[in-house]
Amino acid sequence: MTEIQSLKGFYDRYPEEWVSWKKLIEVVDETAEEFGFRQIDTPNLEKADLYRVKSGDELMDQMYSFEDKGNRKVSLTPEQTPTRARLVQQRKDLKTPIKWYDTSKRWRYENVQKGRDREFFQGDFDIFGIESVEADAEVIAAAARIYEKLDLMDRVRFQLNDRNLLESMLEAHGVENTEEVMQVIDDKEKMSTEEFLEELEETGVESGKAEKIDDLTGISGPISEQIGELREKAPEEAQESVDRMENLSEALESYDVADHCRLDLSIVRGLAYYTGLVFEAFDDEGDLRALFGGGRYDELVSIFGDQEVPAVGFAFGYSTTVETDIYVLSVSENVRDTALEYATTLREKGLSVETDLSRRGFGEQLDYADSINAERVLIVGERDLKNNQVTMKHMDSGKEEEIGKDEVVEHLERERLL
Ligand code: HAM
User: Beta 119-128 vs 98-107: how paired, if at all?
Assistant: First the structure.
């Protein structure tokens, strides 16, 4: 007998789990249609060269690349943006604005962790052919609409920046190696101030300037409130980008999403093709990685031919948004039946529930529950049951509480999970 499991970072989704993914995909698709985006379908395998020029080193390192039987160097698509740019370039007859969406799988050889998988879904939304901020505002509004529909808008924070703005501010302060410095800025949130300054100095920036950069990239807050400070600090060459940011802020207000957006001069994003606006969204209540990310890439289409077509868009990340409500953990073999009964009851109540299928140990089940973003873990153990109890673990705080074994439903109702 050979026991073969799925590869690390790749997931088997049985029907009871797939339903919550399918529901989310439907919300994303529905939102896209509401905003007039049209669905496309593109290959999952591309020539590796498609990514060489503009996706950046990090993504190149993460690609699943191999030689096919015709000795072509090919890659499983790590993202869809270059494919879309290729498609737009190929057709000169498309009427602008071209608004496309789709949800499909991508592959990246990542360090597997919460919200980072090797096979994952992305929902891409892009508008081609519109250079003005109206398109920028519309893609951001579409993203916001997804979270509104999911009832998550209260906890989602959108962070925006403009790479041109940041670059000209850096240049005005005499920074010459802007590209390298922007890569360090991209990692700023993961570092302490000392580390950040050190990393900057390692790229050759003098210490006085490093402190200036720390100060500049600390500009963060509601866009309309930051514009004044930006205008003061921005050099002449950057005033146009400041104007653009101000116009964007007004357009976001008309879409009623400005309150959820913040300007943050430390947002750079890893992909190399962005030419202006960049944005990401984070979950205020969780330690989740970016929920989605996007930006403007006006020069990508022209890499593949003579048509120049401006573009802006984002990819919605499913792994960081799908949350399993409850994972039912069975501490030992002889409580499995009881655990399954709990799982069934809670599913009947409409929750998305997972439980152990492969007789894994306690720690492994807990790790798994963490990896699928389970909100709660219901721990079913023999000793607890003898005391007429089960344990409920809150995965965000780590807090555990004992509840009566027949009071699980009431408890969840009280916690407003049901
Ligand atoms: P990205 O920032 O690489 O951008 O990915 C966008 C989102 O996809 C991330 O914020 C995250 O939610 C999700 N994501 C990325 N990598 C993984 C992973 N390994 N596991 C799970 N989720 C992941 C892009 O891909 C651009 N092509 C987005 C874009 C579209 N820009 C313009 N149009």
Answer: antiparallel
Is residue 107 in contact with ligand 1, taking CB distance under 6 Å? no
Query: Domain 326-414 carries which CATH code?
Result: 3.40.50.800
Report CA(286)–ligand 1 centroid distance (Å).
18
**Predicted local confidence at residue 287, as pLDDT:** 56
Q: Ligand 1 centre and the CA of 111: distance in Å?
A: 15
**Atom 13 in ligand 1: residue holding the nearest Cα:** 317
Determine if ligand 1 sits within 6 Å of the CB of residue 108.
yes
Q: Is the CB of 292 under 6 A from ligand 1?
A: yes
- Of the pLDDT bands very low, low, confident and very high (cuts 50, 70, 90), residue 36 is very high
CATH 3.30.930.10 residue window(s) in the chain: 15-317
Residue 418 reports pLDDT greater than 80: no
Side-by-side strand order, sheet with 73-76: 45-47, 73-76, 65-67
- Ligand 1 contact via 314 beta carbon (within 6 Å): yes
Q: For residue 114, name the pLDDT band (cuts at 50, 70, 90).
A: confident
Q: From edge to edge, which strands make up the β-sheet containing 376-380?
A: 353-355, 326-330, 376-380, 389-394, 400-404
Strands (E) in 163-317, as ranges, are 220-222, 261-264, 277-283, 292-296, 311-317
| Nearest C-alpha neighbor of 242 from the set 256, 232, 253, 252 | 232
At residue 173, the pLDDT reads 87
CA of 84 to the centre of ligand 1 (A): 15
Q: Which CATH number fits domain 15-317: 2.30.42.10, 3.40.50.410, 3.10.105.10, 3.30.930.10?
A: 3.30.930.10
Please list the residue range(s) of the chain that carry CATH number 3.40.50.800: 326-414
What number does the ligand 1 atom closest to the CA of 317 have? 12
Calculate how far, in angstroms, residue 37's C-alpha sits from the geometric centre of ligand 1: 19
Q: Averaged over 345-371, what is the pLDDT?
A: 88
pLDDT band at 372 (very low <50, low <70, confident <90, very high): confident
* pTM as predicted: 0.86
Q: Is the CB of 294 under 6 A from ligand 1?
A: yes
Compute the distance from residue 146 Cα to the ligand 1 centre, in Å: 16
In 3D, which of 157, 163, 169, 160 has the Cα closest to residue 281? Answer: 157
Q: Is 291 in the pocket of ligand 1 (CB under 6 A)?
A: yes
- Quick count: other Cβ atoms within 10 Å of Cβ 378? 25
Mean pLDDT lowest for which of 63-72, 214-223, 346-355, 384-393? 346-355
